[in-house]
Design goal:
Layout: E1 9-11, E2 14-16, E3 23-27, E4 34-39, H1 43-60, H2 65-81, H3 83-94, H4 98-104, H5 106-120, E5 127-130, E6 133-141, E7 144-148, H6 154-167, E8 171-175, H7 183-193, E9 201-203, H8 208-216, E10 222-226, H9 229-241, E11 245-249, E12 255-258, H10 264-276, E13 288-292, H11 296-307, H12 328-343, E14 347-350, E15 365-368, H13 375-378, E16 385-391, H14 394-402, E17 406-407, E18 409-413, H15 417-426, E19 431-434, E20 449-450, E21 453-454, H16 461-465, E22 467-474
Parallel strand pairs: 7-8, 7-10, 8-9, 10-11, 12-13, 12-18, 13-16, 15-16, 18-19
Antiparallel strand pairs: 1-2, 3-4, 5-6, 6-22, 11-21, 14-15, 17-20
Helix pairs in contact: 2-5, 2-7, 3-4, 4-5, 5-6, 8-9, 10-11
The protein binds NADPH dihydro-nicotinamide-adenine-dinucleotide phosphate.
């Protein structure tokens, strides 16, 4: 099986190859086979991307928002028409089962293009009257934005960054993770087909060094990263050198609190979605599941029963609902955490092993009796490992939930509405859920507090991160000067 893209990069409206860059194998996670190759961007490729984007952005900024929006909405329509092909590509890129990719990857990218396309015509400044004088503001693009993606949602991430950037009149250079280079290239192709002028959305491949070169280039005005906290620290520091705008969507170790009055099957559903969807490779996952002591044993018993229903197998078979890890490297990281969990005394309820088949498959894994100080309760694992912790008291569980350096997400399951809102108000997290988990509609802001990030993606909030205000004061009368 070969899924070889036309070429490694997409610049100025066309595919570009430069085989002198670092060779990157594209590995299908379900089999471990090499299914294609791309080359990391060389200095010449980076230069070509930056110059074409800079040139194109000047003209794009002069077009009306409505015109920009029309192109984005057309791209959304094309993505929806080709959802199946794009979903299959996402499955080859990430290993995630088609039963997921058909519903949350290309479709979420289309949602972003449609939403920001719809918003583009209404992005305006304001008139500020001050007696006979007045001021007005102009909402201007930032210029050249760089997007750097993680490997878990390559299609979605490329549009969560690209759509608001383009709607606001910017150009974008997107660098996918080296692990998943395929999907963003297709998005770039579709944008051109939808009528986007060439040079406005370029995709270049590469390892972290390519991202670092883009971030430190003085011609780049904004950087939006989806990645880990350690990478976020480096990218934020490099951007600070040039006082560039940033959006940082980083890691998490989010709490999901299940009170004893919760609808237990719904809470189990939330915990399963928040730990095992995409084989647990979701930044906002609720990986510290605090379960009230009164319902803990029942919760664990039902959880094990429901995990027994997981269909693990070929991700291209639509009945499969649990696939492999994205890479051998990520699988080994997670295996190490499972060993640490055992050695620190957590009770292994189920899973814990690698599946005896090709590809990077790990069993869905649950640890109970996890203590707050255990490594598996403190560090982001980014794999299918749920830690269940007990609690009895509301105030105490809030303090424990907040006792982390991360602050991406938090969830509460309870049938007591007052308690739900009271607890959510106290939790230190950017994206919260009541009686649900991991919904990420484009209409609502998404992003983290504390070390989990800076800025917000999606919703009107993203507009603030891809545009800036010019303020113009207008004097109607004479200027009075002291001399
Ligand atoms: P990494 O932080 O390893 O990489 C993220 C991206 O940054 C990759 O494209 C990487 O390139 C690039 N990169 C690495 N070093 C540098 C550098 N010095 N300068 C510029 N770019 C660099 O994350 P993963 O890809 O492993 O993704 C997993 C992480 O992403 C998890 O921590 C997860 O929580 C987080 N994440 C956050 C989300 C959010 O919205 N908050 C959503 C999804 C994931 P390369 O691939 O070549 O290393």
């Amino acid at each position: 099986m070969q899924i070889q893209p036309v070429a490694s990069h997409f610049i100025n409206g066309e595919y570009v190859e430069d085989t002198s860059g670092t060779l990157i194998d594209i590995v299908y996670p379900a089999t471990g086979e090499i299914i294609g190759r791309v080359y990391g961007a060389t200095e010449a490729v980076i230069e070509q991307a930056i110059t074409s984007a800079k040139r194109a952005q000047k003209e794009w900024a002069k077009t009306s928002g409505t015109e920009r929006g029309r192109i984005l909405r057309r791209a959304a329509d094309i993505i929806r028409e080709r959802n199946r092909d794009l979903s299959i590509l996402e499955t080859y890129d990430t290993g995630k089962p088609l039963s997921e990719t058909l519903y949350v990857d290309a479709t979420s990218a289309a949602d972003a293009l449609e939403y920001f396309g719809g918003l583009a015509g209404s992005l305006t400044g304001e008139h500020i009257p001050m007696g006979e004088n007045w001021a007005y503001t102009i909402r201007e693009p930032l210029g050249l934005c760089v997007g750097i993606g993680a490997w878990n949602y390559p299609t979605q991430i490329s549009c969560w960054k690209g759509a608001p950037a383009l709607a606001c009149g910017n150009a974008m250079i997107f660098k996918p993770s080296e692990t998943t280079p395929l999907c963003a290239l297709k998005v770039a192709e579709i944008l051109i087909e939808a009528g986007l002028p060439k040079g406005l959305y370029n995709v270049i491949q590469g390892l972290g060094d390519v991202g670092a070169k883009l971030v430190s280039d003085t011609r780049v005005d904004k950087v939006s990263l989806t990645g880990s906290v350690p990478t976020g620290r480096k990218v934020y520091a490099a951007a600070a050198e040039g006082i560039k705008h940033v959006t940082m969507e980083l890691g998490g170790k989010s709490p999901l609190i299940v009170f004893d009055d919760a609808d237990i099957e719904n809470a189990l559903g939330g915990a399963i979605l928040g730990n095992f969807y995409s084989s647990g490779q979701v930044c906002s996952n609720g990986t510290r599941v605090f379960v009230h002591e009164a319902i803990k044993e029942k919760f664990l018993e039902r959880l094990s029963a429901r995990l027994g229903e997981a269909i693990i197998g070929d991700p291209l078979d639509e009945t499969t609902n649990f696939g492999p890890m994205v890479s051998e490297r990520q699988m080994k990281i997670v295996q190490d955490y499972i060993e640490i969990g055992k050695s620190e005394g957590a009770r292994l309820i189920c899973g814990g092993g690698r599946l005896d088949r090709d590809g990077f498959y790990l069993e869905p894994t649950i640890f109970a009796d996890v203590r707050d100080d255990m490594t598996i309760a403190r560090e982001e694992i980014f794999g299918p490992v749920m830690a269940v912790l007990d609690f009895t008291d509301e105030t105490d569980v809030i303090a424990r939930a907040n006792d982390t350096e991360f602050g991406l997400s938090a969830g509460v399951f309870t049938n007591d509405l007052s308690r739900a809102h009271r607890v959510i108000a106290e939790l230190e997290a950017g994206s919260c859920f009541i009686n649900s988990y991991n919904d990420a509609p484009v209409e609502a802001p998404f992003g983290g507090a504390k070390l989990s990030g800076v800025g917000r993606e999606n919703s009107k909030a993203a507009v603030e991160h891809y545009s800036q205000m010019k303020s113009v004061f207008v004097r109607m009368g004479d200027v009075e000067a002291p001399f």
